[in-house]
Design a protein that fits this description.
The complex is a heterodimer of chains A (372) and B (307). Chain A is of the alpha+beta class and 372 residues long. Chain A contains nine helices and 20 strands. Chain A has a six-stranded mixed sheet, with helices on both faces. In chain A, strands 13-12-11-14-20 form a five-stranded antiparallel sheet. In chain A, a hairpin with a 2-residue loop joins strand 9 (204-209) and strand 10 (212-217). The two termini of chain A are 35 Å apart. Chain B contains 15 helices and two strands. Chain B has a two-stranded antiparallel ribbon with strand order 1-2. In chain B, helix 4 packs parallel to helix 8 (164-192) and helix 5 packs across helix 8. Classes of the chains: A alpha+beta (372), B mainly alpha (307). The interface between A and B is medium-sized, with 26 and 19 residues.
Chain lengths: 372, 307
């Protein structure tokens, strides 16, 4: 019921300069939507249009089935958490949280009750009489969340709420926001540039770039079936390895692919998918995630040998920076596999690698769209 | 003694400290010579029948000068007039200045033009604009011309500048008109320092424009309001030129303010140095008390303790 629907929404700042183009999205009533993309991709603008802080140039926005294009922010039944918290510095924590209720003339004892309950949930009960400047970043973040929750709105909008926190606190708050999402049972729309936040929190991810939606899907879909080179490269860390201009040949109904100086016969599943789409011979971009390349064993057929340049020990795993001819790429291997890679600076060794061909991605060299 | 001496020795041993003193000296010397020394001297003078003539002896007068001030009706009128000027100019300058700042802050184009236009009166000469205002309010002035020859409201010129309250109101109008620009600049700077996010959060929280002004804007420019208030009150007590040019304190010292009365007593006729010093000291005391009271009322520490 209480979902958000955007239909062909545009935002034009200056003449011909579109921050958001043709944005369409429909959410369920209990959904955690994450808008993710690099800075300037239009994700914050989209959120602000939903909040009513920005006018929309064209299109329609519906909240809970009602057209809200010209509705004041206060009438949209939304709450928003800002990146810099935007707590009122001259008010106590209590008043910061209570203000929206005071404005709506909610009886004092009910306000008190609700603020106390929210403060209890967020663990800020002992700070209610303090001013925001007497709080740490994490506590301020909780107050900002409290201010949003106390209204019991239909939709929560969160604009990079964790980006001002240190790494440890960010992980902790991430979990708490997920818990809140389950406890409140409403729709969250969350903007971030951090793909880890997107992957861990979202039930639905919207990947954006240059004001355009690149892909909408569950974290799993986005990760395993990226619709284009941008999404494939943006989601996942370290990012997917791309090999440009690799010849894909179709001969006698069999697809072969040449990259990293090796000619591979593609596995059965890929063959079927490619022939279903009637993909012709040509140059493609090959994408391989670092974890889909491993150190080769005796049994492996198509081995690729490459030069190890740098190894980065991460604890449970090691990132190996490899080079073959002009191509450099990264692979991710478990730490225990070879004790040699645990040392920093073991370089200039040649390694035999095996590629999980069933997991590679093929993109059109021109349109950069996934071929499968 | 020895510890204090060694402490002083170690203070001067540090190169930074010597440099600090060297840098502070010119400023301290100027302030000392032209501010602190005259204040102390004035305080001393207020207890003497002070003479400035060659080989004249200044007789110790005790509290005679203060008694003279308190029994002087004209001094009472001057102080009352100063308060009238202050009570009229300070709030109106601030309110109009804030309104103008709010309007300029709300527009996107021509902000520089408007700022310049409102600031022009501030940088024009007091004497020049006071003369202009005298020409508006004098018997043959612009205002009477409009009332008599254009609107035909009256047949005889109205003596705006020759009656106490109208004359003071006319000078106050000059003070307000000339002060709006300064307030506008100060308040505009304060308004622009308020992050826009507060207003966005407020509009989502459901505050309308009026509520945003009283709940967000005003509390966030409280410090600026206090600053402006103190500066303007001190400025109002220092008003001199508008009165001097527009009325000269006439008729019969009915429109004198503190400074014009001091000047008259000291230099124009009687050379009553001690009397003027005593009155000056009293005015200083009044301003100090007002400033301390204002800081007490506005002080953020007090609020913190309350909560």
């Amino acid at each position: 019921m209480a979902g958000v629907k955007l239909s062909h929404v545009y935002k034009e700042f200056d003449k011909g300069n579109f921050a958001v183009s043709d944005f369409s999205l429909e959410t369920g009533e209990h959904e955690f939507v994450v808008l993710v993309g690099p800075s300037g991709c239009g994700k914050s603008t989209t959120l602000r249009m939903i909040a009513g802080l920005e006018d929309i140039t064209a299109g329609e926005i519906y909240i809970d089935g009602k057209l809200v294009n010209d509705m004041e922010p206060k009438n949209r039944d939304i709450a928003m958490v800002f990146q810099n918290y935007a707590l009122y510095p001259h008010m106590t924590v209590f008043d910061n949280i209570a203000l929206s209720l005071q404005i709506r003339h909610v009886p004092k004892d009910i306000i008190r009750e609700r603020v106390m309950a929210v403060a209890e949930t967020l663990g800020i009960s002992q700070y209610l009489n303090r001013k925001p400047r007497a709080l740490s970043g994490g506590q301020r973040q909780r107050v900002a969340l409290g201010r949003a929750i106390v209204r019991q709105p239909k939709i929560f909008l969160l604009d990079e709420p964790l980006s001002n926190l240190d790494a440890k606190l960010r992980n902790q708050m991430r979990t708490e926001i997920i818990k809140l999402f389950h406890a409140l049972g409403t729709t969250f729309i969350y903007v971030t540039h951090d793909q880890v936040e997107a992957m861990t929190m979202a039930t639905k991810i919207v990947v954006m770039s240059d004001g355009l939606v690149q892909q909408i899907g569950s974290p799993r879909e986005i990760y395993h079936h990226p619709s284009n080179v941008f999404t494939a490269g943006f989601m996942g860390s370290p990012q997917m390895n791309f090999f440009e201009r690799c010849p894909l040949e179709r001969k006698d109904g069999q697809y072969t692919l040449t990259f990293l100086g090796t000619r591979f016969l593609l596995p059965q599943e890929k063959q079927q998918q490619l022939s279903q789409k009637n993909v012709q011979s040509g140059e493609v971009i090959v994408g391989v995630r670092p974890e889909d390349i491993r150190l080769a064993t005796q049994e492996d057929d198509d081995k690729v040998s490459a030069l190890l340049e740098v190894s980065e020990m991460l604890g449970n795993e090691v990132l190996l920076h490899m080079r073959k001819a002009q191509e450099s790429f990264i692979i991710r291997v478990p730490e225990f596999e070879d004790a040699r890679f645990s040392q920093v600076g073991v370089a200039e060794t040649t390694l035999e690698l095996a590629i999980a061909l069933s997991k590679i991605h093929l993109f059109d060299a021109e349109t950069r769209v996934n071929l499968i | 003694m020895s510890t204090r001496f060694s402490r002083a020795k170690s203070f001067f041993k540090r190169k930074d400290n010597i440099r600090m003193l060297a840098l502070l000296f010119p400023g301290l010397a100027v302030i000392g010579l032209f501010t602190f020394y005259p204040i102390i001297k004035m305080f001393v003078m207020s207890f003497f029948d002070w003479k400035i003539g060659y080989q004249q002896v200044s007789q110790f007068a005790g509290l005679m000068n203060y008694a003279a001030v308190f029994s002087d009706k004209a001094a009472g009128i001057a102080i009352a007039n100063t308060f009238y000027y202050m009570l009229l100019t300070v709030p109106l300058q601030m309110i109009i200045g804030l309104l103008v700042a709010l309007m300029i802050n709300g527009i996107r184009r021509f902000t520089v033009t408007f700022r310049l236009m409102y600031y022009l009166p501030v940088i024009t000469s007091w004497v020049v604009v006071a003369l202009l205002f005298r020409n508006i309010f004098s018997n043959q002035g612009l205002l009477n011309y409009f009332l008599m020859d254009v609107l035909h409201v009256t047949n005889d010129p109205i003596g705006w500048l020759s009656t106490r309250w109208p004359a003071l109101t006319a000078t106050s109008l000059l003070g307000i008109w000339k002060g709006i620009g300064w307030n506008m600049v100060i308040f505009l700077a304060a308004l622009q320092a308020i992050p826009g996010e507060y207003y966005e959060a407020a509009s989502i929280d459901g505050l309308n424009r009026r509520q945003q002004f009283f709940r967000i804007t005003l509390p966030n420019i409280k410090g600026t309001i206090l600053f402006s208030l103190v500066m303007l009150i001190i400025g109002a007590f220092n008003t001199y030129t508008p009165i001097m040019v527009m009325t000269g304190g006439n008729p019969a010292h009915q429109t004198e303010v503190v400074l014009t009365w001091l000047y008259y007593q000291t230099f124009s006729v009687s050379g009553k140095m001690g009397y003027a010093a005593a009155l000056s000291f009293l005015v200083t005391a009044i301003i100090s008390v007002l400033a301390v009271l204002l800081f007490k009322v506005f002080s953020p520490q007090k609020e913190e303790r309350k909560s």
